[in-house]
Inverse folding.
């Protein structure tokens, strides 16, 4: 089965956070490929990856990076696929730098920016499923079920 989603990240050190996106996709039965690609350290490889992703069958790209986090934006500049950005919780500025770098895109090049860290990575997985589910009824049913379980878990916490 070919992957529908690409999960890319600026460094191996982002993997513990970004694996939450993969776990979420896996729970919906959506296959992802995972790669370390840096807008700064491997700029040409990053651009080549973004340019070829659509023709390889990728439908959504999730990009996580920290600090001067340009990865999602650079990838969005080189593809017509939807790009979801996940700001990493950085050492010195606690991810505020990553958030601003990812979210503050100029008009014309959107990046759907999630929350900083693991919650953002989980939501990136869900959003990718929601995008793919627009054309996939089986996934849509799984999303409805997911929402029901979410509501049930909140009720349990209250009681
Ligand atoms: C970014 O720099 C990465 O996305 C990572 O969050 C941050 C630090 O990278 P390492 O120095 O841990 O490799 O490019």
């Amino acid at each position: 089965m070919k992957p529908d989603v690409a999960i890319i990240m600026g460094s191996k050190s982002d993997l513990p956070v970004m694996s939450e996106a993969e776990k979420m996709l896996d729970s919906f039965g959506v296959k992802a490929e995972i790669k370390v690609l840096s807008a700064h350290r491997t700029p040409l490889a990053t651009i080549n990856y973004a340019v070829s992703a659509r023709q390889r069958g990728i439908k959504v790209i999730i990009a996580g990076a920290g600090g001067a986090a340009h990865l999602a934006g650079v990838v969005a500049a080189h593809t017509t696929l939807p790009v979801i950005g996940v700001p990493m919780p950085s050492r010195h500025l606690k991810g505020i730098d990553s958030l601003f770098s990812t979210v503050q895109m100029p008009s014309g090049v959107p990046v759907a920016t999630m929350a900083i860290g693991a919650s953002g990575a989980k939501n990136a997985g869900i959003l990718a499923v929601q995008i793919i589910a627009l054309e996939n009824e089986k996934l849509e049913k799984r999303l409805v079920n997911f929402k029901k379980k979410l509501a049930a878990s909140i009720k349990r916490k209250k009681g």
Observations:
- The CA atoms of residues 148 and 154 lie 10 Å apart.
- Strands lie at 5-9, 32-36, 60-65, 83-87, 112-113.
